[in-house]
Amino acid sequence: MRHIAVIYKHARPEAAGLAEELTAWLENHQVRVSLQENIDTSDFRCNDQPISIPETVDAVVVLGGDGTFLSVARFLESRSTPVVGVNLGGLGFLTEISTASCFDGIKEIMEGHFEIEERMRLQVLIRREGEEIFSQSVLNDVVISKGALARILDLKTSIDGRYLTNYRADGLIVSTPTGSTAYNLSAGGPIVYPTTSAIILTPICPFTLTNRPIILPPDVTIQVELSDPAKHVTVTCDGQVGCELASSDQLLIAVAPNPLRLIRTPSIEYFRILRTKLKWGQV
User: For the chain, does the N or the C end have fewer beta carbons within 10 angstroms?
Assistant: First the structure.
């Protein structure tokens, strides 16, 4: 690898310090570096400040947490550039290299001791009166939920045009396998191995307790509509960007054409991350 983009989390002095150290270290190894700060201003107006990642980079290194990683992944939705994350706090599900092992991990990658995992994304589309008003790819999940007032939503849900059910719940999570250990897990959904091709549908606190999570094949399209008029219903993508859903809107979710290419090193193993993050086997 001769050209690497290093992107670090905004407003974290330790991230800026590590970014400078890593840049100097890479340049000392004759690697060209594009160093950028990730100023993530994403909100429901979708006014991200885009990160300009040169087309010539061989890989992107993200310094931050899983949230920073998700933010950077949005700017690579149409690119095949592989990405690796360095978690400033320890191990993460996406930013799997710790700060302590940062330089050793990057050295392994530079020497070719790595593999590429393709992580499925979802494509979210909202149509209003026949027009597309919102489109976004997500790596983790799509969440349909209510605002501050605690009121049950009635969500008519269909799969490939075939009626599934009306979810009466606090909301609905549509997750990728990568996102199965995020909000989906907290809502009682299953952990799905991250390279599996599947879509997970998990209701949030359903009124009918027999409404359980469903794992669907990757070639389906999920359609969700509001059965009852409701205000302040939001569609949130990866917990970072989104759109308010109107009563007549159609929400369509399917597998995105471009997966994320995640760099994995031999020293990091997914089941060890599960044991560490979820504290399995600890008393």
Answer: C
Read off the tokens for 71: 């933010």
Torsion sign (Cα): 159, 230, 228, 209: positive
d(CA 239, CA 143): 8
Mean pLDDT of the chain: 90
Give residue 114's identity as a one-letter amino acid code. F
Q: For residue range 12-51, what is the model confidence (pLDDT) as tens digits?
A: 788 899 999 999 999 999 999 999 998 765 555 444 556 7
Homologous superfamily of domain range 3-119+259-278: Probable inorganic polyphosphate/atp-NAD kinase; domain 1 (3.40.50.10330)
* CATH of region 122-255, choose from 2.60.200.30, 3.30.499.10, 3.40.50.300, 3.40.50.170: 2.60.200.30
- The DSSP code sequence of 105-142 is HHHHHHTT--EEEEE--EEEEEEETTEEEEEEEESSEE
pLDDT per residue as tens digits for the range 56-103: 999 999 999 888 899 899 888 889 999 999 998 666 788 888 888 899
Residue 48 falls in the annotated catalytic set: no
Residues 212 and 205 sit within 8 Å (Cβ to Cβ):
no
Q: How confident is the model at residue 272 (pLDDT cuts 50, 70, 90)?
A: confident
Residue type, 264: R
Phi first, then psi: give them for residue 180, nearest 5 degrees. Answer: -65, -25
The pLDDT of residue 47 is 47
Q: Which residue among the candidates 66, 170, 238, 249 is catalytic per the annotation?
A: 66
The whole-angstrom separation of Cα 207 and Cα 212 is: 11
Across 227-234, average pLDDT: 85
| Cα within 13 Å of Cα(171), Cβ side | 21
Contact call for residues 232 and 153 (beta carbons, < 8 A): no
